[in-house]
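Thread amino acids onto this structure.
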């Protein structure tokens, strides 16, 4: 296993309209952070949905820059999941570790964003990231993210959600040949992989990454309209909730249609800006 790639830190849902996306996710029962504006060279902004040890973010392009060219290219085609940030204690050490494994990780980049503080005033959330080359993670984009100021990101008032969300339980990736794609992901985490129905699971150190054939994804969620998902790529994620009843009540209060799949409640991509979301008790 890797010493400086420590699992999944957060996932990114790329959206065209940050205000509208924040309202949509509020209707799903999530507490939404105030909008953050990243460093000027990034040209992006976000709203985070903070969970106990991880999170996900809604990210949009605020101004075109060289750094966000890829995000703009994706948004020209669709909204939805666009990246997975991996947890690291040091972006520089993670980059060196990846390079020793033959993965051409980029030099770390620093950026930050202002954060409104609960008691008034403004703090700063600062990060160092190192990007992996596209060929290292087929059908997805991954990078390592080092939090330099975790206390301004995991703000206690943002951790309580009407739907009782606690954390990420699984990240879903659609790919035509999971067995062929799995070795690349297993190489990132150095933890092996295991067959699952319709695909391959790659342990990451915390939240597993499930590589599924599109047909297997459809079979897993037979009552859910998946037509807004890409044919191959990041499809969605599973959120662990304390209470199925709380999740159900939050979705009903938001007027959000959902499908019951076993013990879980599933929101179709059309209701979540192109991302499939499963609320799983446990």
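Threaded sequence (282 positions):
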């Amino acid at each position: 296993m890797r010493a400086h790639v420590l699992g999944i830190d957060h996932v990114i849902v790329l959206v065209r309209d940050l205000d509208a996306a924040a309202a949509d996710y509020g209707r799903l029962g999530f507490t939404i952070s105030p909008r953050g504006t990243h460093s000027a060279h990034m040209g992006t902004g976000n709203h985070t949905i903070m969970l106990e040890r991880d999170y996900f973010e809604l990210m949009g392009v605020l101004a075109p820059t060289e750094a966000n060219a890829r995000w703009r290219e994706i948004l020209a085609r669709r909204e939805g999941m666009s990246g997975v940030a991996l947890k690291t204690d040091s972006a520089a050490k993670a980059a060196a570790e990846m390079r020793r494994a033959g993965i051409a990780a980029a030099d770390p980049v620093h950026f930050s964003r202002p954060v409104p503080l609960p008691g008034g005033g403004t703090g700063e959330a600062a990060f160092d990231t190192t990007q992996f080359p596209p060929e290292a993670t087929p059908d997805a984009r991954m990078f390592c993210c080092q939090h330099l100021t975790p206390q301004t990101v995991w703000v206690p008032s943002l951790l309580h959600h009407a739907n009782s969300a606690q954390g990420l339980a699984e990240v879903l990736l659609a790919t035509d040949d999971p067995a062929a794609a799995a070795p690349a992901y297993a190489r990132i985490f150095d933890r092996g992989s295991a067959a699952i129905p319709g695909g391959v699971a790659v342990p990451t150190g915390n939240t597993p990454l499930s590589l599924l054939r599109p047909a297997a994804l459809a079979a897993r969620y037979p009552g859910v309209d998946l037509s807004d998902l890409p044919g191959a790529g990041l499809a969605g994620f599973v959120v662990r909730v304390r209470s199925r009843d709380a999740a159900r009540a939050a979705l009903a209060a938001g007027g959000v249609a959902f499908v019951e799949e076993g013990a879980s409640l599933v929101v179709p991509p059309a209701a979540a800006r192109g991302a499939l979301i499963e609320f799983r008790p446990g």
